[in-house]
Write a structure and sequence with these properties.
The protein is built from 1 helix and 10 strands, in the order E-E-E-H-E-E-E-E-E-E-E. By secondary structure, the chain is mainly beta. It has one domain: Beta Complex (Metal Binding Protein, Guanine Nucleotide Exchange Factor, Chain A). The longest helix has 7 residues. The chain binds zinc ion (ZN) (2 copies).
């Protein structure tokens, strides 16, 4: 029987911040490529690769500014295992949804790490390039394709219905 839980780990560039996705959180709800302009700025790159994972612990993480209230003890879900004290956050209030998105990054090396939305307090968006095992990462969705850089083609292996002009929920505007 399968009580064995899978675990994924990751870190920022300098290695001060380490995190873990355990149990059900290690299997993303979905992996996505985001071409939105905010992610572009956040990363300084053409697009974001993100794993949307259930978080399951410390729902108030980073929405609360008191580090002592962060949880490290979880054996399921998402946890920051090292370096929470150097994690910085930026509240991005110019999002497509109009809801502020909390984006976080390493205060030492600047790596973009996690994003949190009040629309779904049970999930974390992990910048997937920070996963220790990115080799096996495969996108299932593509979003904000209206802002896809001209030199970037359709991401391979994604069905048409999983390719979104804007955010995952929104339908393309027709006029
Ligand atoms: Zn770092
Ligand atoms: Zn984005």
């Amino acid at each position: 029987m399968s009580t064995e839980t899978s675990t994924k780990t990751g870190s920022c560039l300098c290695g001060k911040i380490k995190y873990r996705l355990e149990g059900h959180a290690a299997t993303p709800i979905y992996n996505t490529v985001c071409h939105c302009l905010n992610c572009r700025k956040w990363l300084g790159s053409a697009f974001l690769t993100a794993s949307i994972c259930s978080k399951n612990v410390s729902q108030a993480i980073l929405l609360n500014t008191n580090p002592s209230q962060y949880s490290h003890k979880a054996t399921q879900g998402f946890s920051i295992t090292e370096g929470e004290d150097v994690l910085r956050r930026y509240v991005d209030d110019k999002t497509g949804s109009g809801k502020p998105l909390t984006r976080t990054f390493c205060g030492t090396c600047g790596s973009s790490l996690f994003a949190f939305t009040p629309l779904r307090e049970d999930i974390v968006s992990v910048a997937a390039g920070t996963l220790d095992d990115f080799e096996s990462w495969e996108p299932a969705r593509e979003q904000w394709c209206i802002h896809r850089a001209d030199f970037v083609e359709n991401v391979r292996g994604i069905s048409e219905e999983s390719r979104h002009a804007m955010n995952v929920q929104a339908k393309p505007a027709k006029d």
